[in-house]
Amino acid sequence: MSRATEERKLKHLFDGGAWNVYEPNILNLGVGAPGTDLLESCCDIFQQATEHCLQHEKKENQSLIFQYGPTNGCFEVRREIATYLSAMYDSPVNCEDLIITAGATNGLHLLLSTLIDFQGYIFVDEFTYMIALDSMKHFTSLTIVPVKLNDDGVDLRDLGEKVEKHRFSSPNKEFWGMYYTIPTYHNPTGILFSPEVCRGIVQLARKHDFLVVCDDVYNILYYGERPEARLLAYDARTDVDYAGHVVSNCSFSKILGPGLRLGWLEVPPRIKPLLEGSGFANSGGCFNNYTAGIVGSLFKLNLAQQQIARFHETYKERMLATTEALAAALPEGCKMLSPSGGYFIWIRLPQPLDAREFLKYSLEQQKIAFIAGPRFAADGDSGKQFFRLSIGFHGKAKLADGARRLCQSLKDYMMSVTTA
Ligand SMILES: Cc1ncc(COP(=O)(O)O)c(C=O)c1O
């Protein structure tokens, strides 16, 4: 029976292959999802929130949660999210700017299909979220243009030159091009874009009128100081040349649970009616009206705030334990970017080592998996000297032990290559 037609009764996305994160014989350090220990408390709090929400629906809302929802999501839910975010960012978020989505993947698809000229250009960091690349590649008439990435964010000169070269006037869409990035705790590199780089991106976007899409799913997961501001805040509405070029695409996947399929876009007034008017959004109304209502209750009951705080604290401990173990044991010649938030640690091997070869060795010798750099490059081939580890899934003891074993395996591998 072919894989396509076989009913395999899978339980989760990573089920059914060598990458199964629940496979006891392999330590998979590649997966970007919260682990079982974090998710298990969801049942209790969601039970309470569901009870609260459905009581309200039955008594006071004509069960409208089961109706097609308003395209941008119910006001009460957006208000709960906006209040929470305003506190987390320490800067106001307007609930009128929010559009509820079925997660960041859904948000990106809506933006790509609605706002960008199909003959247009998508600028991406030379290493970027691999599945966003897969989504973009479905739009076969779009051209993906990788841009150099430095330790403090995208290389502004490279972005400026490439944008200048490709710019055109779109006859039928709001934007001729898009720059897609993850400015806060970047996937896969873990970096945080500096204020200078954020400012520079906004200046370029205004000058050349392209859309900046910030994939902000790790935004509130800071482990040291809260970042000064997110990229969206640099596109200030009080500026004389403000037009609205930046969108923040967020999700509850990493902070409450990916199975919810719930997120939100924060968009400028220029863009909101275009998204709300799209057939893709309008035909079904709110992308996930029922779950949004339950999560609204989760916030009203103060359960979401507590749960997110717990996730946040746990990730922080995991990141610290992993980076400490790596810093102590990474072989000479390897470089690690120590992130101040998010899920990912990006490691560079000395030339001419290839992380894809090391992955085979590591799986064979230690049964430890990770993702090699080329998966994050638009051409699928650049970046062979890098690999990405993720701290989201496993507990800190397992991560620290895994990091030590990985370093030992790397030492052995480097030795075997130099003596071969
Ligand atoms: C940068 C980035 N964007 C989006 C996603 C997926 O988000 P969602 O589950 O909200 O679709 C991930 C998950 O790994 C991610 O790392």
TrEMBL record:
Checking SUPFAM superfamilies in the record gives: PLP-dependent transferases
Domain (Aminotransferase class I/classII large) ranges: 25-400
| Molecular function in Gene Ontology | 2-aminoadipate transaminase activity; pyridoxal phosphate binding
Q: Which domain of life is it from?
A: Eukaryota
Pfam families hit by this protein: Aminotran_1_2
- Name by which UniProt lists this protein: Aminotransferase class I/classII large domain-containing protein
